């Protein structure tokens, strides 16, 4: 029958091959699945929001400095601080007397106001200078030392003087202007028969001469 033939043809056409666009889409899906299985995770695939990238975490940890203190820091903190050096005692402190003080006629001299000075100069002519003084005693009622000074013989002028050994004596130990000091000093030449004359000296408290040389 014509109608039966038409119906059979229609059934055959409906059971024929799937449309091309449906087949291509299915093939593309299968291809993506195969690529994913072969390569693991694609480099272009985005991790899920909750995933933590292991490599990034390791890099971050490596970039952070260690918080453990170095051996030098530990040693420095463990070592006690060095004590500050003790300061030198000022002249005349702790009961140690000085050789008078710079005052009066001797204000521009040298050695006055010091403990065991090696040079004494009253600020006048060369006869008022004694150098290289070595003290054999200090701190008692008298202090004694030896040095070199200019000796003037009878009727000699300063230009005719000679450098010779001299004995130096500091005496009259007491307090002057609230400071402990030898308040008098004199030097002489034993090799020329001289000796200490306690009534003729330099008053190194007030800065004046006492007696006649």
Key traits:
213 residues, alpha+beta, eight-stranded mixed sheet, 4 helices, 8 strands, 24% helix
What does this structure look like?
The chain has a domain of 118 residues. It has four helices and eight strands. Strands 1, 2, 3, 4, 5, 6, 7 and 8 form an eight-stranded mixed beta sheet that branches. Strand 2 and strand 3 form a beta hairpin. 16% of the residues are buried. The N terminus is likely disordered.
List the helices and strands and how they pair.
Blueprint lengths: L1 H13 L5 H20 L14 H10 L7 H8 L19 E2 L20 E2 L7 E7 L7 E9 L10 E15 L2 E10 L12 E3 L4 E3 L3
Biggest sheet record: 8 strands, mixed
- Compressed to H and E, one letter per element, the order equals HHHHEEEEEEEE
The shape, in one word, is globular
Count of beta strands: 8
Mean pLDDT: 72
Rg is 56 Å
Distance between the termini: 176 Å
Class by SSE composition: alpha+beta
Strand content: 15-25%
């Amino acid at each position: 029958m014509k109608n039966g033939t038409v119906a059979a043809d229609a059934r055959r056409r409906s059971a024929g091959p799937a449309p091309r666009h449906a087949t291509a889409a299915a093939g593309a899906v299968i291809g993506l699945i195969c690529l994913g299985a072969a390569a693991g995770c694609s480099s272009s695939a985005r991790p899920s929001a909750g995933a933590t990238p292991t490599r990034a975490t390791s890099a971050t940890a490596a970039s952070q400095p260690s918080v453990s203190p170095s051996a030098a820091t530990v040693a420095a903190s463990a070592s006690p601080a060095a004590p500050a050096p003790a300061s030198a005692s000022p002249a005349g402190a702790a009961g140690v007397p000085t050789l008078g003080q710079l005052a009066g006629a001797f204000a521009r001299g040298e050695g006055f106001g010091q403990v065991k000075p090696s040079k004494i100069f009253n600020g006048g002519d060369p006869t008022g200078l004694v150098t290289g003084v070595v003290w054999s005693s200090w701190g008692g009622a008298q202090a004694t030392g030896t040095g070199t000074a200019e000796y003037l013989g009878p009727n000699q002028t300063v230009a005719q003087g000679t450098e010779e050994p001299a004995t130096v004596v500091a005496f009259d130990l007491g307090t002057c202007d609230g400071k402990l000091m030898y308040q008098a000093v004199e030097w002489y030449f034993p090799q020329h028969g001289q000796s200490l004359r306690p009534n003729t000296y330099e008053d190194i408290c007030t800065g004046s001469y006492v007696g006649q040389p």
